[in-house]
């Protein structure tokens, strides 16, 4: 089967890197890649060809693809030009776009949405959300350090001593834990909050302090996302966050609720009580942001506080992000390619969850 890898039009990453190609070919896949697809991630067309891929134009890929792979979905016009029954693999985010599944079915396409792969131990090696979140958490701290007009670590010099910066991480999922670990490596004092009590042990193991607010609703089936909380809990949460935000130099927010607007954890009044020069990095900006003043893909300044809104920080590290994404895709392909044939076994939990165009039992 011909698997076509498309160049991203709004992202520096690429879905498949050269080192993965021989392993995909071993599964019975013929790899076609769009010319220049890996250029922004520093993978040349020559490297792809050396590994056995065919480099072609976008129009050729649209004609020949039996499996079409991209990080962001192809345009509707491009999907219309694909042959019926083509398997399209991307991140369609059906929780955020209620119409996408119907559109794909109407076009006669089969679709795997990588963001729907269950976030379980069994599927961990193919979990693109976790891979990209880990990079985002790391990059969030580097971006904060770049904006912050102060040191992260304690510094003792002949000219005087500098106190370490205080970092508050809201949401101790994959991104939050990586942010904690990175901030600790840079010498900051770190506190973290999460509604899930299970996160406490992980936060403490990284050398950070865990902030507890009683009364949180938990759901182990939420797939790593937050859960909608009661108004009473949110009020207590905001009061606790505000008290700690006033003393923080950096706040990293990561809280998202699947299919809903991100909860406001840092309202305008909290920002106005923070120290001038402080930094907020909002990783939930694409779904409205955890900070009331966040603007997606922008750095704004309010009362001397910098607010960076970016849910796509992984794309700022395109080489390693592409490598991890490609490995996730390879591990996923091993589930649905059996004996050199496409095998969409709906008894398999991973396939059943990710194949969004399949008719699910009522």
How does this structure look, described?
- The chain is α/β, with parallel strands linked by helices and 362 residues long.
- It has 2 domains: 2-126 and 318-354, NAD(P)-binding Rossmann-like Domain (Rossmann fold); 135-315, 3-Layer(aba) Sandwich (Rossmann fold).
- It is 31% helix and 18% strand.
- It is built from 12 helices and 17 strands.
- It has helices at residues 21-26, 45-50, 58-64, 76-80, 100-106, 128-147, 174-185, 199-205, 231-245, 268-271, 318-336, 349-354; strands at 2-5, 30-34, 54-56, 67-69, 87-90, 110-113, 155-157, 160-162, 166-170, 189-193, 209-211, 250-253, 279-282, 298-302, 305-309, 337-338, 341-342.
- The protein has a 7-stranded mixed sheet with strand order 11-10-9-12-13-15-14. Strands 3-2-1-4-5-6 form a 6-stranded parallel sheet.
């Amino acid at each position: 089967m011909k698997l076509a890898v498309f160049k991203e039009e709004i992202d520096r990453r690429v879905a498949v890197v050269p080192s993965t190609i021989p392993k995909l070919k071993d599964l019975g896949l013929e790899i076609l890649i769009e010319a220049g697809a890996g250029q922004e991630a520093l993978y040349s067309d020559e490297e792809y060809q050396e590994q056995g891929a065919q480099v072609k134009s976008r129009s050729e890929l649209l004609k020949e693809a039996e499996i079409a792979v991209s990080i962001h979905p192809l345009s509707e016009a491009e999907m219309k030009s694909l042959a019926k029954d083509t398997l399209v693999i991307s991140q369609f985010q059906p929780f955020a776009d209620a119409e996408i599944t119907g559109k794909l079915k109407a076009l006669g396409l089969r679709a795997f949405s990588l963001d729907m792969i269950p976030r379980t131990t069994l599927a961990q090696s193919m979990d693109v959300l976790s891979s990209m979140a880990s990079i985002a958490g790391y990059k969030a701290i580097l971006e904060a350090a770049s904006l912050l007009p102060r040191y992260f670590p304690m510094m003792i010099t002949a000219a005087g001593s500098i106190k370490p910066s205080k970092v508050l991480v809201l949401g101790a999922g994959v991104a939050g834990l990586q942010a904690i670990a990175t901030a600790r490596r840079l010498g900051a004092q770190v506190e973290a909050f999460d509604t899930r009590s299970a996160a406490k042990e992980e936060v403490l193991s990284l050398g950070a302090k865990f902030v507890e607010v009683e009364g949180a609703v938990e759901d182990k089936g939420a797939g790593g996302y937050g859960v909608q909380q009661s108004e009473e809990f949110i009020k207590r949460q905001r009061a606790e966050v505000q008290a700690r935000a006033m003393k923080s130099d950096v706040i990293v927010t990561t809280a998202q609720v699947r299919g809903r607007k991100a909860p406001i954890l840092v309202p305008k009044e909290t920002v106005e009580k923070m120290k001038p020069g402080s930094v907020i990095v909002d990783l939930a900006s694409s779904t409205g942001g955890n900070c009331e003043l966040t603007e997606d893909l922008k750095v704004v300044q309010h009362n001397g506080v910098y607010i960076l809104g970016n849910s796509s920080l992984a794309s700022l590290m395109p080489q390693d992000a592409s490598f991890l994404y490609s490995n996730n895709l390879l591990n996923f392909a091993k589930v649905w390619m059996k004996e050199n044939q496409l095998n969409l076994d709906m008894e398999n939990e991973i396939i059943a969850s990710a194949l969004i165009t399949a008719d699910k039992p009522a």
